[in-house]
Design brief:
This protein has about 120 residues and is an alpha/beta fold. About 20% of the residues lie in helices and about 40% in strands. The longest helix is centred in the N-terminal third of the chain and has 13 residues.
Length: about 120
């Protein structure tokens, strides 16, 4: 159902360096861009994340309650992505762990303060 989610940035170069490294751990790469947004994904027809300047040209702000969750195939990958985010200076919002029997996840914030979850479902 999800096509893409956009996260605003006030320092696009710093944000793109962060997402190159963190999403790269998941096999995601830069797909395409326009003057405002850089899209990342793992393959054609798969959900994407876009990083860039807000459409209204105002400062990017963090949404209260907004949190993209990125699904991965293993608990090891959750750990790996979280570790890379920490190496890139991300603040932790919750170390990797089992939150319920069918959900293993970790939480961190990107350089602009957007909260991100990486998780293994099932």
């Amino acid at each position: 159902m999800l096509a893409y989610v956009t996260l605003g940035s006030n320092n696009k170069e710093k944000a793109l360096a962060f997402y190159d490294a963190v999403l790269g751990e998941m096999g995601a790469k830069r797909f395409f861009a326009n003057d405002r947004l850089q899209f990342y994904g793992v393959g054609p027809g798969q959900p994407m994340i876009a990083i860039g300047d807000p459409w209204d040209k105002n400062a990017a702000t963090v949404g209260n309650g907004v949190m993209p969750a990125l699904a991965v195939d293993s608990r090891d990958m959750v750990d790996k992505v979280y570790k890379k985010a920490m190496e890139m200076g991300a603040p932790s919002e919750g170390e990797p762990g089992e939150r319920m029997p069918t959900f293993y996840g970790a939480y961190f914030r990107d350089p602009d303060g957007n909260k991100i979850c990486v998780c293994k479902l099932g």
